[in-house]
Automatic annotation (TrEMBL):
High-level lineage: Bacteria, Bacillati, Bacillota, Erysipelotrichia, Erysipelotrichales
Spans through the membrane: none
Name of the protein in question: Transcription antiterminator
Swiss-Prot/TrEMBL keywords: Repeat
Gene Ontology molecular function: RNA binding
Amino acid sequence: MIILKVFNNNSVVALNENRQDVILTGSGVGFQRKVGDIVDEKKIEKIYVFQDEQKKRIEDSLKSIPIIYFEITEEIVQKAETVLDTSFSGEIFIAIGDHLAFAVKRKQEGVYLPNIILSETRTLYNNEYQVGQWALRLIAKKTGVMLDEDEAGYIALHLVNFSLSNKSNNAIKILTLTKEVLELIQKTMKIELQEDSLAYSRISIHLKYLGERIFRNRNNQFEDTTANIRDMLKEDPRLALCINRIVKLIKNRYDYNLSPDEQTYLCIHLRKNT
């Protein structure tokens, strides 16, 4: 493998035997190395492979993103792999490195970009969010810039989306659906769910699993196997209105028909937690 760029003593970008761009990490893999050198493969500990169609973006990013942000990203990825017990695709280095470069620049210029799904991210992807919080302290140590909590949420989403354990890459869609349905529930049921409450957590997690089904399986085929929903809705007109609105929202926004079984589970969760 031939070195294309040296980040630091322990990480480089290289071209492998299949003409693919890869990021290599390992103790001393970049020590006293320069572009064009052959990689000492005995020092490679991890290999992160990029998709072929990403080649131009990778090359552009390597030229435009300051090396410090790749170094920070490498530490974040190592931390995440340990804490989350997962591996990541090579794209995560570009995604987080690019994001951090602009996030620090925005902070220095006094530009605030709110994360409108931060609450849902904290609840549904808390382990990734905790890594994001750790990353904020690392960034502050390396750059002298303390980013807002919103950025921990953005980092968490990158960790979810580029994890090799996550086959769907639908985190943002799921979080958006969860946020929309939670807002609809609170408005219709005339309640306020506290983010740190058990009710909020239970409903959010149920909606996350619902979202995963929606975005993985577009052609759902269910039979009406229960009459429970009809009884529950007869007893509670406001609950009936809420379920009806959720069904319409999901159909109109995501072209997905909630089955009677799925509606029943929603009813159970709402009756128990609202």
